[in-house]
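Quick one, T. Sequence first:
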Amino acid sequence: MKNIFRILIFSLVALTSCEKNDEKADINCESLTQGLISMESDVVSTELEKLTVDLSPNPNAEDQYGHSENIELLVSELNQQCENLQAELACYACIKTYPPQSTLLISINSSGIIIKRVIDISTPKDDVMKYADIHKLDSETTKEQDAAMLEERYAEILTLSQSVNCDNPDDWTFTAIGSKACGGPANYIAYSKKIDTTAFLNLVEEFTLAQAIYNVKWGIMSDCTVTPKPVGVDCKDGKAILIY
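C-alpha cells:
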C-alpha cells in the first residue's frame, strides 16, 4: 500500500513539473507584439525569458559559447507560437561584449503594414541566454505606401460589412475597429450576423493591429477623446446605421 502511495506521489510531482515547464514556454504573443511595437523593454524581456529560462549552454570545440542550438530554438519557438511575428537569426555571438550577444531580426506584419525590430540576446558560456536590448530598424516602405495599404484594407472590410442588406436590426451587431494613436478604438463598424463573422472579425483585428503599428512607426498623433460606443444597430433604406 505504501509503495502504491509513493508511486502516486511521484507521478503527481512529475506531472506538476511538466506543467510548470509547459507554462514557462507559453508566451503571451499579444503582450510581446505590443511590447515590440511600443519598444517596451520590460515587456519584451518578460516574455522572452519564458523561452530562454531553461536554455543552458553546452560549450564544445565548435561552439565555445554553447548557445548556437539554443538561439535557433528560440527563433523557432517565436515563429511557431506567434503567427504575426517573423523571427530570424541575424548573427550568433557577433556583438563582442562581455558576455557576447546575438542578434535577432523581428518583423511584425499586419495587413501589409510592417514594423521591424532588432533584439539583442546575451549568450554567455556559463549561464542561460537572456534578453539584452531592443532597437528600431529602418522601414522598407514609405508613410504614403503604408497609409494606402491601410485605406485598401479598410475598404475591403467596409465592402464585406455592406455586402448584405439591412432588413432586420436583430440580424446585425457591431464591433470596434482601428486604433487611435492615443489609445482605444478609432471607430465602430456594423456587420451582419449572416456573413462569415469569424473571417470578418479576423480582418478587423488585423486592420486594428496594422493601424497601431502605423501610428507607432510614423509617430502619428491624435486627440485623446474616447470614441463613443454605439448602443445598437438600426436599418434605414437597406443600410445598417449605428445608434448612439
